[in-house]
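@here heads up, posting the sequence + SMILES for the zinc ion run so it's all in one place. Ping me if the SMILES looks off, I pulled it from an old spreadsheet.
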Amino acid sequence: MKKHASLDGLVEALRRLPGVGPKSAQRMAFHLLQHDRDGLSMLGHACTEALTKIQHCELCNTFTELSVCETCLDAERDTSLLCIVETPADLLMIEQTMTFKGLYFVLMGRLSPLDGVGPKDIHLTKLVQRASNGVVREVVLATNFTNEGEATAHYLGETLKARGLTVTRLARGVPVGGELEYVDAGTLARAMLDRRAT
Amino acid sequence: MKKHASLDGLVEALRRLPGVGPKSAQRMAFHLLQHDRDGLSMLGHACTEALTKIQHCELCNTFTELSVCETCLDAERDTSLLCIVETPADLLMIEQTMTFKGLYFVLMGRLSPLDGVGPKDIHLTKLVQRASNGVVREVVLATNFTNEGEATAHYLGETLKARGLTVTRLARGVPVGGELEYVDAGTLARAMLDRRAT
Ligand SMILES: [Zn+2]
Ligand SMILES: [Zn+2]
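bot reply: prediction finished. Complex structure tokens:
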């Protein structure tokens, strides 16, 4: 019976969200239809807008509506400092600490050989180009302090040091095994200020 | 800074979903943008489709794309039996038990005087009209076994008995305080078969 095509379609689409199972998706769909049609409309438009407008910054690889994002275009930034993070969420967390005035590169992932995620998937060529522009002096490795994040930091550190760059790592104020996105801003600020040569 | 209008819009829209806070919304938005653009597109279309196509059945009040839903139009159904549920999710749960061959009325809520939810909000007039069509003989009250669901059942039971209808309630196989949507189908089947006069 294909009797609720639109409803089934909405439930199916909501199930694509991370952490949302069939029961939650149904509950969300009914909630929107019954109590929040404005929200349903907003969500529809927001998805379509995001899909067409949001792309990756040519320089730092983060999500942006421009070809080069506003952070990269910001003339107040210290262009000799480049901070490498795994995700845009991590970038936002570091911005919140207000301890870093340089620029960023967003890997959009981390090395994970077991999952088939290699250097190409974290945009290594683009990163090396970016870091080798003759202006960047120090690269701050701000990948997560998980096993994969540490391995990624090690790999990138070796690669970039081989090109004559100073490479630092966030201080170990971040709890071992922790993910940046869930650390409080104070701890992260401490870790940024205490970053050390690697 | 309004520098990420589309991204902020997407995060804001996702926050309208029940149980989704700011962190989850951001995580969902980044996940879709980075790993599941098809899902983002599906969600956009599904919301828009649902908004324009899904309405309430003229007879039973559930969500449908038709003016009268397929259940209400189904000639195999026993039109002398009318089961009253709080939500479309509850209706689907009862359908899954395959113990009920009558028709439904969906209240789209429950009486809750403290929250300002009165008889009008659960479509009492529409329900009384529906139950008083001269064909319905028995009304099965299948509201939740919560305090509000029980109070709603009591109120509706009195109202409908006063109009000469036989009124039954799902048997107390459903755990007290439980919500239909989260009960296993076996328990719910037992409760349907054991429904009793009230
Ligand atoms: Zn950028
Ligand atoms: Zn109907």
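MO: The first strand of chain A starts at residue 55 and ends at 56.
MO: One more: Chain A touches chain B through 54 residues (CB under 8 Å).
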